[in-house]
Amino acid sequence: MQKLRTLIVDDEPLALKLLRAKLGKLDTIDIVGECKNGREAIAATLDLAPDIIFLDIQMPGLNGFDVVKRLQSDILPLIVFTTAYEQYALDAFDVHAVDYILKPIDDERIARAVERALERIEGVEGHDNKPRILGAIDSINQREKMGEVASQIVADMSVSNQIVDKKVVIKDRDEITILKQSDIEWVDAAGDYVCLHAEGQTHIKRSTLKELLSELDPNVFKRVHRSTIVNLNFIDKVIPHTKGECFLLLGEFEKIKVSRNYKDAIKEFLLGE
């Protein structure tokens, strides 16, 4: 019988204890780690490579959404949110086939989530989970639509930036964020969305990787994985890994996996070619 390598994350000790006890009843679950905040969850995911994460949404610092956005889609495990979030959010996750467990946690909901996870891993529903989650988050954000005037501002900025400075314009609910390319540390793509990581924040933009790459400076931004690109100027350390792969350390907390198919870009950078 296949066992799911499982990571559980919650900032409340009692919630962790309860989740551990309920998951421990299932023969298909092997708990490999526990975390009490988002940063620990990111580090544990990279170190332990779990199949599935039971992830609390509302945590101080990095919340559950932030954890998903900061993990590369190529190495993101299946996500089951454990949350007391408002009903409209749960509806959005359900539409996008993202599993969740509404607190207080019950055995039936856990069993359903684990069953769905096993089906995805076996290929019944597919294993590319991050686009679905980003789609759900985007649906939540779009509950508060921007007005026509703001939308026109975005369009005007996009045209202006293409001519002058090629900054990246991001529309999120009633806000418009303008990122300098020099501030973007790395980008993770998931379907029709990209996550741009800059100055300790992660911004979701509805765009394909191909579309975004056409805007970025090809001398600075290099693809290092199937759906990941990095700003070479932010690389602090390169750590060799197995099978010709390696990890890039960007600042204090970001750790990016480089696949062997794209290692030449980093090799050229290190050799100064």
What does this structure look like?
By secondary structure, this protein is of the alpha/beta class. The chain has two domains: 138 residues, 3-Layer(aba) Sandwich (Rossmann fold); 92 residues, LytTr DNA-binding domain (OB fold (Dihydrolipoamide Acetyltransferase, E2P), Beta Barrel). Helix content is 35%, strand content 29%. The protein has nine helices and 15 strands. It has a five-stranded parallel sheet, with helices on both faces. Strands 10-9-8-12-11 form a five-stranded antiparallel sheet. Strands 13-14-15 form a three-stranded antiparallel sheet, with no helix packed on it. Helix 3 links the parallel strand 3 and strand 4. Helix 2 crosses helix 3 and helix 4 crosses helix 6. About 7% of the residues have low confidence.
Q: Please indicate the count of domains.
A: 2
Structural class: alpha/beta
Give the CATH topology of the largest domain: Rossmann fold
User: What is the helix tally?
Assistant: 9
Silhouette: globular
Rg calculated over all Cα atoms: 19 Å
Question: Mean pLDDT, nearest integer?
Answer: 84
Short summary of the structure?
The protein is an alpha/beta fold and 273 residues long.
List the helices and strands and how they pair.
Layout: E1 4-9, H1 13-23, E2 29-35, H2 38-48, E3 52-56, H3 64-70, E4 78-83, H4 87-95, E5 99-102, H5 107-121, H6 130-141, H7 148-163, E6 168-172, E7 175-179, E8 184-190, E9 193-198, E10 201-206, H8 209-213, E11 221-225, E12 228-231, E13 237-240, E14 246-250, E15 254-258, H9 263-271
Parallel strand pairs: 1-2, 1-3, 3-4, 4-5
Antiparallel strand pairs: 6-7, 8-9, 8-12, 9-10, 11-12, 13-14, 14-15
Helix pairs in contact: 2-3, 4-6
